[in-house]
Structures are given as structure tokens and as C-alpha cells.
Amino acid sequence: MQFDAPAGIRKITILSAAYGQDGPSTWELWVSRDHGRTWQRNGQPQTATGPTLLAATFAGLANEPLRLEIRKTDAGKSRLNLDDISLETTSGPVTAAPASRPAPVAVPAPASPADDYFKNRNNPSTPASPTATRPVRQAPGPGAATDNDNLLLGNPSGATSDPANTTNYLYIHPQYVTSYNAQRGTPIWTSWHVGRTDITKNFPRQNDFRADPGLPRQFYAVSPQSYAGSGFDKGHNCPSGDRTATLDDNSATFLMSNMVPQAHKTTSKPGRTWKNIPVPRSRMARKPM
Fold it and tell me: Which of 68, 100, 178, 188 has the smallest set of CB atoms within 10 Å of its CB?
């Protein structure tokens, strides 16, 4: 979970709790001063215990703009409830913006305050923040589409970003876009653009399979343990190999919301039927235009 903060931040307050009757969760606040290239933990790890929201305050940050990331660091299955996040400068409170690379298409905004990031985290009309070092997937103008648009070929199921739409929920990541079926716990479809800047192999496969904390809190959180004993593998929709430019890009492909059950024989040696399908596409992406 990343968001950008303007220059001059002096204090960050985050409310956290365990989700419902879940057990404790440990989380950390990480800070980047170079738009996500390098990260440093700010303050001490925080442990959320019980359903009551408690405030954690982080002070003495920097004068330059910051990229902030909240990381759930324990290996347990417990879900983490994050609520209000307050940013303060010497001149008063300010509003956080989603991390750069804004969502690519115009989707009607839910009926909620425009400056509430967490209620609008999947709303492509939320104002964009300063750009990161990797090329930005720019949001097209009305009726337009761009070549590096994750939804260049459209929204085939008419998915919406309304959490009440549990069987066709439009879930927008900077790395890919998904129509998610919360009742089944799997994507209906996933769409992503791949180009030479996406497959640089700067970062290796992270293998950090985990529940997706960005889904609406009322959705069931599929975890890696959900596949235990099922006879199926965790099958990527957006492949790990198509997002190797940054650590965060590759890590995002291991969210369980990007997985579907996959028969083991399609990925294991010697068959690897499914594994071989993306190869021609990746070769084409590397060709100069």
C-alpha cells in the first residue's frame, strides 16, 4: 500500500487494529525519498491487537516529497485493519495522494469525498501524484487510449469500482487491472501492458505470496494457505516475468488477488504447457519499434 506525501511532512498518524476477531498483525511504515527506488523504515514496527483502532505516530520526517508504504511484515494469516491516515506539516494537515502511475481509464467515482484516498484508492479520477522513475502509464483523455495503457483493449465485463459489485469488481493496481469476483476469490480477467521497460530483469522473482490488503475489507482475503492440500498451484494472471523493472512491481504479481487455481501438470516439468505460452509475447515486447 503506497501513497505520496508533499514536502514538509512533520507528523504522520495511522490508526490500525486487528480485523474483526483475527489475531495480531505487525506492520511497518517505510519511506522513500527518491520516488520508490530505495526505501528506509521509519520508526519502530507496530503491532495491532484487538478490534479497537489505536493511533501510531511517526514524527521528524523530511522537507522533500516522500513516498510512503505500509507493509504487513508478519507471516501470519491475520488481517490488518488500517483506517484514518493523517499527514501534518508546519502549516497544517494535508492530504495524501495515491502513488504515481495513475490508473489508465476514466471510471465513475464512488460517492465519497474526493480527498479521501483510502475510499477512492481504486478510483482512476483521483488526482495523480508526482511521477516515479519508471515510465508512467498516463491516464488517457476522454475517448482516448494510450499504447502503454493497462486497459488498452477495454473493460470486457464492464467491471466497476463499487465494492458492492462483488462479482465484477474493478481492481486497479499500477502494474495491472483486474475484474475480481469476491465470491469466488479469484479474478475474472486481468489486463496488463508489457513493454521493454517492464521486463528489464532488474529485480528477481520475489515469491512473496500473500493476501491482498488492498481489497475492500468486506471481501474474503484469500491467503496462500487457502491452496494447501487442494492439489492446485497458485497460478499468476499477470506473470511475474512481465514485471521485473522494480521490486514493488514484481512483488505486486504475488498478491493472491492475482491468482487462480492452476493444475500442477501445466507448470511442472517436463510439460510446462502454460509456462511456455508467454514466451513469444515477451520476445515481441523486447523488439525495438
Answer: 188
pLDDT tens digit string along 3-54?
788 888 888 888 999 988 899 999 888 888 877 778 788 888 899 999 899 9
Could you give the CA distance from residue 155 to residue 179 in angstroms, rounded to a whole number? 9
Nine-digit cell at 286? 523486447
Only one residue has cell 493476501, namely: 211
pTM, entire model: 0.49
Spatial distance between the Cα atoms of 285 and 207, rounded to a whole number of angstroms = 23
Q: Which residues of 52-67 are buried (b: 16+ CB within 10 A; e: fewer)?
A: eeeebebeebeeebbb
Domains of the chain and CATH, by start: 1-89 (2.60.120.260), 100-289 (3.40.570.10)
Q: CA-to-CA distance for 106 and 117, rounded, in angstroms?
A: 17
Tell me the three cell numbers of residue 250.
514484481
Give the position of cell 474483526. Answer: 20
Q: Which uninterrupted H or E stretch holds 249?
A: helix 247-252
* 149-159 tens-digit pLDDT: 888 888 999 99
C-alpha grid cell, residue 123: 478510483
Residues in the chain: 289
276, exposed or middle or buried, with CB in 10 Å at 0-12, 13-18, 19+?
exposed
DSSP-assigned letters across all residues of 53-71: -EEEEEE---SS-EEEEEE
